Amino acid sequence: MKVYIIKLKTIAIFSAAILIAVSIIIVSAIIFSTADINLSGVFAQRRELPIYSVDCKEKKAAITFDCAWGSDDIPDILNILEKEGVTATFFIVGQWAEKNIQSVKMISDKGHDIANHSYSHLRMGMLDTERVEKEMLLCSQKLEEITGKKVELFRAPYGDYNNNIIKTARRLGYHSIQWDVDSLDWKPGISPEEIKNRVLRKVQPGSIILFHNDTPHTSKLLPEIISALKNKEYELVPVSKLIIRNNYYIDFDGRQKMKI
Fold this sequence. Notes:
The chain is built from nine helices and eleven strands. The chain has 260 residues and is an alpha/beta fold.
C-alpha cells in the first residue's frame, strides 16, 4: 500500500513539473515571437516605389514610349501625336540617343518630354550604386547635350528597380516613373486588338501608359487608341504635367497622392 501511495505522489509531482515546463515553453515562444515581430517592424527597411500612377480627380492620363532599339517609326509616331494634339513622354536610352541624334532632336522640338531610360539598357537591379549612378548620369548627359533641356524623369529598363535605384534617382534629382497600363506592344505574337483592349480596359484617371517604338503595331494603332481615349473624355498629358511635384507620398500600389 505504501509503495502504491509513493508512486501516485511521484506521478503527480512529475506531471506537475511537465505542465510547468510546457507552460514556460509556450509563454517563452509567445514572448520571443512577439519580440521578433516588433523588431522586424522597427528594423525592416521601407520599400521604395516609383510612381506607377497619379491620384487625380480629372480624367487625365499620360502616354509614354520607351526608345531602346530601332527608330524608323519615330517620324510616324511624332506626326500622329502632332495631328492629335497630344504631348507624350519618351524614355530614351543613352546609347540609342547617340545613334539617333536627329530623332531625339525631333522629339524634343515637338515639345515632348525627354526622359532618362539609362545609358546601356541593363537590368539595373543587378548593378552596384556606382554603376547605377553612372548609367543615369551618362544618359542624361547625352540627352541634355542633344536637346539643351534638363532631364528630370527616369524609368528603369525592364521596370527592374529596387530601393537603391529609387534612392539614387531621387538623390540625383529624378522622379522615378513606372506604369500602371502595359500595352505589351513589344510581345511577339500579340495582336493589334489585344494591345488596344489592354490599354482601354486598364486605363483610369492618372494612368501612365507604356508603349514602345520599333514594334509591329504601335504606330498603326496609336490614332485609334488616342481617339478611343478622347471619346472616354481623357485629356492626354506628358508625365511631367501629370505628376505631383511637392507635398506628396506614394502608396503601397505605387499611386502618387497629395498629402493632406
